[in-house]
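Q: How do we represent a protein-ligand complex in a form that can be generated token by token?
A: Start from the inputs.
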Amino acid sequence: MDMTTDTKLEVTDGFHLVIDALKLNGIDTIFGLPGIPITDLTRMAQAEGMRVISFRHEQNAGNAAAIAGFMTQKPGICLTVSAPGFLNGLTALTNATTNCFPMILISGSSEREIVDLQQGDYEEMDQLAIAKPLCKAAFRVLHAEDIGVGVARAIRAAVSGRPGGVYLDLPAKLFAETMDAEAGKKSLIKVVDPAPRQIPAEDAVQRAVELLKGAKRPLIVLGKGAAYAQADADIRAFIEKTGIPYLPMSMAKGLLPDTHEQSAAAARSYVLPQADVVMLIGARLNWLLSHGKGKTWGGKDHKAWGGQKFIQIDISPQEADSNVRIDAPVVGDIGSCVSALLAAIDSTAGSNWVKPPAEWLTAIAERKNKNIAKMADTLAKVPKPMNFHSALNVVRDIIKANPEAILVNEGANALDFTRSIVDMYKPRKRLDVGTWGIMGIGMGFAVAAAVVSGGQVIAIEGDSAFGFSGMEVETICRYNLPVCVVVFNNNGVYRGTDVNPTGGSDVAPTVFVKNARYDKLMDAFGGVGVHATTPAELRRAMEEAVRSRKPTLINAVIDETAGTESGRITSLNPSAKKK
Ligand code: FYN
Ligand code: ADP
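Then emit the structure tokens for the protein with adenosine-5'-diphosphate bound:
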């Protein structure tokens, strides 16, 4: 080939086609970890004006991509090296799929001919085959001219219908492959309407409205699908217009402010068994809702139906009846469904929509107020050492004063107590372990939340949970992100008091180094590390973190006897089942 400068200008290669295809589709950020064969891809992407955020482990980059997808409705991109790097990203990809977050894992891979003959290549692995059962779709591109189609298919698969994780396999050889620049440009696809609206059928909407109209004790459950849909104003209007009490699932907290008078969050165990008609909006009847049956729902035993009728709004037509009968499935995107419901209510009832019976609302208010008052008493106490409540009372105030801050949350007790104590005021500000109860999302989510929003992030981390992604505090410092990590340090998994029954020198499996100083990890990279043993110290440190926007890690010392085994989900522990 003639390699004069002029000719070179007219040639493009696989590296640039990947970058151009992403940029053409409005993707401006890559979360990843450089190495063979994608190191130059990260360099070139940065040179071409993309934001490239490098992590210390691919799982954290993957978690960052996944949550960026949830926040933006655009697929978050995670870029990894072949085999081991790919596998490290795979947990995040699978978690994204489970949670319905749109994400694309792009991994370089080794020479196809050698991999397929199993001749022992560098980082040899049939990555496409391994990814397939774990994600929504998986594609491989073998030729430069197909990069445009590959990226377009990946984007569509990630964001259309029920969002999820997509794997895109790019063999090393592809990156260096050249083609005529003009032909290359023409081969790219700007995806038109990647997540088309899905309008619900009129009769389905009518069926749902009829059920709601006849309800004596209606309840709405808002899930993270409702938060994802960004139909905040219509969802609020629907809830307020109908006057129906609602229960937010964890990541739907703040869709309406948790202080809203129709929130039944503080009366959860009362409303679930009592409700007669339940409308699920972007929430699945999985384990988090006890599969829609059993004692939680007022059933006679752990498998029995509680007698509720269900309306389910979901984009996935297969979701209905997954656990119990859905009497009125409404299939469509939540924005379109809720606006159709609003219109149907207006046309059938006009301004005469009858709000739920006063007895139902009063009964909920009574339970709720009692629980809130009880909680207020507990929060007011200042025990020494700190417990989860006295520490979270501080976090609660900080979020109240900074409602735009994004709260990342993982752990067992640190997760469960934060969920019920810290009120959220704005949509999509609470990011947590989601459907899988996964540990290790903390720092990946925190980095992405700061990068995507440009605003303050507060990560409330159990000491065990933090350990999974703790090294990313270096990433937080490197990009100087306004992230304040608070490690709830109670010396172990659940608590720090277990002992080795044999009397041997190994500590119990749930116990960590006592009195560890996680704050020093932040010091090591030039951030602000603070050791806090009282609510007053914690408050001062958090206020300063928010004021300065400096990377901060607060080692919050919690009473090592304070946690409960498995937090609020003790019943899932097999030994609890045996008893
Ligand atoms: C809630 N509650 C409140 C408030 N909000 N009381 C007072 N004030 C406020 N603001 C009450 C609520 O009514 C419940 O009491 C209780 O607090 C707990 O509320 P929560 O958290 O909503 O309810 P619950 O029963 O814990 O919900 C079940 C669950 C949840 C499965 C949805 O536990 C969950 O999301 N768990 C995820 C666990 C997880 O993934 N862990 C990671 C793995 S840890 P009652 O009504 O009296 O019951 C590995 O070990
Ligand atoms: P939670 O854990 O908060 O209950 P889930 O993850 O179980 O929430 O449920 C989310 C549901 O929302 C999924 O069934 C998914 O298909 C659905 N969903 C996601 N995005 C949309 C959307 N834009 N429109 C309609 N449904 C959606």
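Residues 99-100, 162-163, 223-225, 228-229, 249, 251-252, 282-284, 286, 288, 314-316, 319, 333-334, 435 surround adenosine-5'-diphosphate (ligand 2) (CB under 6 Å). The chain has three domains: 11-187, 202-364, 381-578.
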